[in-house]
Amino acid sequence: MELFSIKDKVIIVTGGTGVLGGSFVHALAGQGAKVVLIGQNESIGKERVATLKDNGHEAFFVAANVLEEADLIKAKNTIIEKYGRIDGLVNGAGGNLPEGILSPKEDVFTMNIEGMKKTMELNVWGTVLPVQIFGPEIAKTGAGSIVNISSVNAKRTVTRGLGYSMGKAAIDMYTKWFAVEMANRYGDAVRINSIMPGFFLTKQNKNLLTNEDGSLTERGGLIIKNTPFKRFGQPEELIGALIWLLSDASKFVTGMDIGVDGGFTINSGV
Ligand code: NAD
After folding, report:
1. Pocket of ligand 1 contains residue 20 by CB under 6 Å
2. Separation of 24 CA from ligand 1 center, angstroms?
3. Mean pLDDT of 117-146
4. What one-character-per-residue DSSP string does 126-188 give?
5. Domain 10-198+235-263, CATH
6. 16 lines ligand 1 (CB under 6 A)
């Protein structure tokens, strides 16, 4: 449908090498977007691009650390050289880092602050920096869109990952704050919103939610119990919100956080 069209738009997906990012790049390319995967894992990135190209889509991979300004500037120059424009950015790089997770045996007063900081840094500055570097190009198009990835951990207390929860909570304020500041300067030429996924089984949370034999950990079981739909999400269930936010169908939407969580955040458990 034309209203939701992202055809020929040049869209960057950071963390395009990840599980949710993989679903994003396939869906966006499938809708005719020119997709740029950004990530650190060159072999996964290149493999994904090859699959996309085999399916007749336009895509390429740029190796970059989202916390390194020099990498991002280099990536921007490569993209502009190739396509001449950037229409959209999906900030998919992020997640819980093992060193930022408090084990039940650890004392809360001696938790690994450095690990928490590292996790916050990835989730906050790993989103802010790409916007700083790619944003000016996105605004130039007159109809640009940036999509951040928040989490239910920013809204409800989820044990063990304080750095992650604080990082995603910061993303929520950043999305709102930046939406207003960009609008003050660029009008409706560039929008910024976020998607709040519930629980999806991916690389960064697999060990927390499942045992080696694939059965659920106690934590995984609690999540299912507290999700009204009684299951994890499937990565492709985020795509509707993503395409809506990247297309002109959401032209008057900025600073918003769109929940895709099977009811987790609105559930009191009673
Ligand atoms: P994932 O680990 O599969 O993907 C994350 C990707 O980001 C990986 O490819 C990783 O290599 C890349 N990355 C990490 N640090 C990077 C850096 N410094 N520079 C460049 N790339 C880097 O995890 P995922 O679950 O697919 O996560 C995608 C996003 O969704 C994250 O922001 C995560 O916090 C968020 N999220 C996930 C869930 C879930 O249930 N899986 C829920 C809510 C939010």
Report:
1. yes
2. 12
3. 98
4. HHHHHHHHHHHHHHHTSSEEEEEE--GGGTS--TT-HHHHHHHHHHHHHHHHHHHHHHHHHGG
5. 3.40.50.720
6. no
